[in-house]
Structures are given as structure tokens and as C-alpha cells.
Amino acid sequence: MLELHTFSHSSASYRVRIALALKGVTSQNHAVSLIANDHLGAAYQAINPEGRVPAVVTDQGILTQSLAIIDWLEDTHPQPSLYPADPWQKALCRAFAHAVASDIFPVQNLGVRRKLMADFGADEAATTRWCAEWIAKGFGALETETARRGWQAGAGYLFADVPTLADICLVPQMNNARRYGVDLAPFPLLVAADAQARAHPAFLSTAPETQAG
């Protein structure tokens, strides 16, 4: 059985938990609290030298980085797929997911917020504004791209009749947007897509509020 090192409110951890649930793959979960700095301790850094979550321990070794873990799951458990079948739509799905995971999320994660406080004297209100600004900027682009594809509320999930990597990345980031008080009114398509996905059992059963630690 896989061992998953995860933190309840980590967006990257939530992505992997969703993917595992969609694939029907069970894991033994180990809570790594970012608030208590478990990720900075020697025990966890022996598992993941980056000191980040998630990490999975497999029969072949340890794998880190949420999108790499999800792609490995896709390769080793191909059904149900987390991508649309059409190659172009698959590429667009990947682009959407990477816009969240590579562009929006990194500038508002815990390490960045702590650095803003420690080195630049930013208080909680300032770091919240920082996070909200970058999330809104990224969401603006994704809303435009989603509209350009002709996706409409009620049309199913973002790229297929089942959740894909795009939905897996969107829902945790929407959690962050709400946490930082982002005005979501300008993003009605993303709000609708989020509502559609988060009602799926795989998203409900792995949501932060269901997790230990």
C-alpha cells in the first residue's frame, strides 16, 4: 500500500488525495503539519529533502511534487483517466492545471508568506492582500480561457464528463481564494466548475475538513 505524507490544508496534498480517490487507490496517510513545522524536522526531510508535502512512499521509492505523483498514478492506474481523450483538449487541460500549480499557487504558499513577514515586515493583512492579488490575476486569465473554449455552467466538468487534472487543481485553489477573501464575482465560470467538482464524492471525501492533523 502507498504511504502518503500529507497536510490537511495543503493544496498540493489535496490534489493528490483527490487523484487517489478518483483512481480508487488506497493509501496509508501520515499527517505532516505545516503549522507545527513538521516538514522542517529531520525525520520528514529524510523522506523529502525539499521539506514540502505531499510525498508518496512506493515499492520503487519516494516520489514528491503533486503533479508528478498524479502523472505516475495516471501511468500506473490508467483507468479512469484524469485527462480528456482528445490530444488537444488534453494539452489544454494540462495548461489549465499548470497555470494553477506552477503560476498561481507558488507565490501564495506558506513559505512565501513567511518570507514576506520575516524579510519585508509584512503583517497578516499585507500577506493576505498579496495572496488575493495573485490568485485574482491568475483566475482572470483562466476565466477568459475557459470562456474562449465555450464552456458553460452545467456543461459537466471542465474538460470531460468526468473530473480531470484541471478540476483537481482548481478546487484546492478555490479553497485558498475563499480563505484570502478573493472576490469571486468576476469568475462565474470558475465558480460553477468548482461547485460541480467539489460535489463529487472523491472531492468530498478528501477535503481538508475531513482530514486528520
From TrEMBL:
- Superkingdom field: Bacteria
One Pfam family it belongs to = GST_N_3
E.C. numbers: 5.2.1.4
**Database matches in InterPro entries:** Glutathione-S-Trfase_C-like (IPR010987), Glutathione-S-Trfase_C_sf (IPR036282), Glutathione_S-Trfase (IPR040079), Glutathione_S-Trfase_N (IPR004045), GST_Zeta (IPR005955), GST_Zeta_C (IPR034330), GST_Zeta_N (IPR034333), Thioredoxin-like_sf (IPR036249)
Q: Name one GO cellular component term.
A: cytoplasm
Q: Where is the GST N-terminal domain?
A: 1-81
Q: Which protein are we looking at?
A: Maleylpyruvate isomerase
Q: Name one GO biological process term.
A: L-phenylalanine catabolic process
* Record keywords, A-Z: Isomerase, Pyruvate
The species is: Candidatus Phycosocius bacilliformis
The record, for SUPFAM superfamilies, names: GST C-terminal domain-like (SSF47616), Thioredoxin-like (SSF52833)
- Family assignment from sequence similarity: Belongs to the GST superfamily. Zeta family.
Q: Which GO terms describe its molecular function?
A: glutathione transferase activity; maleylacetoacetate isomerase activity; maleylpyruvate isomerase activity
Tell me the ranges covered by the GST C-terminal domain, including all copies: 86-213
